[in-house]
Amino acid sequence: MAQRTLAVIQALRDTAQRLATQAPYQWGHMGSCNCGHLAQTITKLTKGEIHARAMQRYGDWERQLTDYCPTSGLPIDATIDEMLALGFTRQDLSHLERLSDPAIRAAIPFERRNALRHNQRDDVVLYLRTWAELLEQELLAGIELPPLTRSLAPAMPITELIG
Which of 41, 44, 108, 145 is a Cys-bridge partner for 15, taking CB atoms 3.0 to 4.6 Å apart? Predict the structure, then answer.
């Protein structure tokens, strides 16, 4: 799964928020589908720019991710580079396009999970928010705070501290 970083979590949340507030969504359009929206968030490119980049090579996002080559010089590969550099994997992005990551789906209530459709805006928003929540929980679980120790010395009056 994607790296557990604040940048990845924020990208997922920003994408979900934009989709939830009625950004143009069209699953068959490379710039305004599931991966296209995440690419918009990360790269700051428009849906049209992403779509034009993708059309320089054959295939949907899954095919583009399979054929990805960091040294191809193709603009869509530069877009994918940015997404990978932020902390996503090619498998993450492939799962996003189909809402198919087993760990994310398992965190969605059973009734909704079984009714998820990869090309429905509300389902994409739920998937993105669930994914962000899982990453946040994992990130927080890995943070250890040092134990608080009680000082044996008597407390110094504030007037001595500020002199």
Answer: 41
How does pLDDT run across 25-61, given as a tens digit for each residue?
999 899 999 999 999 999 999 999 999 999 999 889 9
How wide is the angle at C-alpha 10 spanned by C-alphas 9 and 12, nearest 5°? 65
C-alpha 146 chain-centroid distance:
30
Q: Whats the size of the chain, residue-wise?
A: 163
DSSP-assigned states of every residue in 66-77: HH--TTS--HHH
User: What is the residue whose two structure tokens read 């690419």?
Assistant: 39
Structure tokens at 100: 């198919």
Other beta carbons within 10 angstroms of residue 4's beta carbon come to 17
Model's pTM, two decimal places? 0.85
Tell which residue, 11, 57, 73, has the closest CA to residue 65.
57
